[in-house]
Amino acid sequence: MLDRKIEQFIENAMQLRILVIGETIIDEFIDVSYEGQSMKSICPVYRFEGKQSIQMGGASAIANHLKDFAKSVDVITNTNKEIIKTRFVDVNDKKKHVEINKFDTAGFKELKVNVKDFDIVIVADFGHGFCDKLKIDDGFHLMCQTNSNNFGFNRISKWKTNNKKSACIDLREASLQVNKRISDPGENEIKEIYNYELNTADLFVTSGKEGSFYCNGTKTINQKTFQCEVVDTIGAGDTFFAFACVTSHLGYKDDILLVPSLAASLSTTWLCNEKSVNKKTLLEHAAKYL
Predict the structure, then answer these.
(1) Residue 167 and residue 102: Cα distance in Å, rounded?
(2) Which CATH superfamily is domain 2-34+47-287 in?
(3) CA 267 vs CA 83, 166, 271, 275: distances in Å
(4) What is the DSSP string of the chain?
(5) pLDDT score, position 152
(6) Is the whole model's pTM more than 0.90, yes or no?
C-alpha cells in the first residue's frame, strides 16, 4: 500500500510548476578531531583533519528536493555568499562542536515577484532579511524559521496579513507564536496554534521524534515519525516543508502528512544537505516500511 501511495504522489506532482523564494544558506563542514583542552586557557583544542565540504542549504535545498518530482522548479534567492554557516565536525563521533555564522545581508532590497506562471509558490523565510520586503500575491506556502540568530524575532505572525495556502512551523516556533511552552501537543493545542494570527488554510507543525501534525481549522491529524538510522537532522524540517507544500496543493486529506514525513525521515540518513530526495530513493525508503 505504501509504495503505491508514493507512486500516486509522483504521478500527481509531475506536471507541477514550482517557484521557491527565500535565502540560500551555504553550509560549510570542516572535519576535526578533539585533542584535549588547552593548558593555558579553558579552551578545547581540535586538529584539522584536511577535509572541507560545502553544501547549498535553505531555499536551494528545498528546490533541489523537489526537482525530480515536478515539471519545473525555479528559485529566486540571494546570488552571493552573504549567508555562510561553518560547522566543525568531529570525525570520530560526527558531532558538531562549533558553529560560526557569517551574515552579510544589509543589501537586500524590495523584491516584487510575478507568480502567475506557477502552480505552487513557496516562501522560505529563514530570517536573514531576504524576504522582509517581498511583494507577492496571496496564496503562497510559507515557512518562517527561528534559529540562533533570530530567536524570537522571526515569528510567523509577521506574515499574518497575507492569506496563505499553507504554513509550516516546528514546535519551538509554535510555542513562540502562542506565547507558551508546548512540549506534547494535543488536538486543542494544534487548533490554538492554527487560530493565532496565522491566516492560513493548512497548518503543518513538526515536532521531531514526536512526528508531525496537520490542521485545517476543524480537522487535526498526527503522523508518527518513520524510524531510521539517523545521521543528521539538519535540513529535515526543510525537506518536510518542501513536500508538505505539494500535498497541500494537491488537496490530500488523511494522507497529507505521509510523503512529507517519509521524505524528512529519508533526509536524516545523510549529513545536512549532501544529498537530495529523489523518486528512486523515496520509493526505496518507503519499501522499508511495507
Answers:
(1) 28
(2) Ribokinase (3.40.1190.20)
(3) 22, 22, 8, 8
(4) -HHHHHHHHHHHHTT-EEEEEE-EEEEEEEEEEEEEE-SSSS-EEEEEEEEEEEEEEEHHHHHHHHTTTSSEEEEE---SS-EEEEEEEETTT--EEEEEEEE--TT---EE---TT-SEEEEEE-SSSTTTTEE--S--EEEE---TTTTTTS-GGGGTTS-EEEEEEEHHHHHHHHTS--SS--HHHHHHHHTSS--EEEEEEE-GGG-EEEESSS-EEEE-------S--TTHHHHHHHHHHHHHHTT--TTTTHHHHHHHHHHTTSSTTSS---HHHHHHHHHTT-
(5) 64
(6) yes
Asked if the model's pLDDT at residue 252 lies above 90, the reply is yes
Phi-psi region of 43 (alpha: psi -120 to 50; beta: other; left: phi over 0): beta
- CB-based contact 133:113 (threshold 8 Å): no
Tens of pLDDT, residues 102-138: 888 777 889 999 999 999 999 999 998 899 989 999 9
Cell of 96: 558538531
pLDDT at 77 (0 to 100): 95
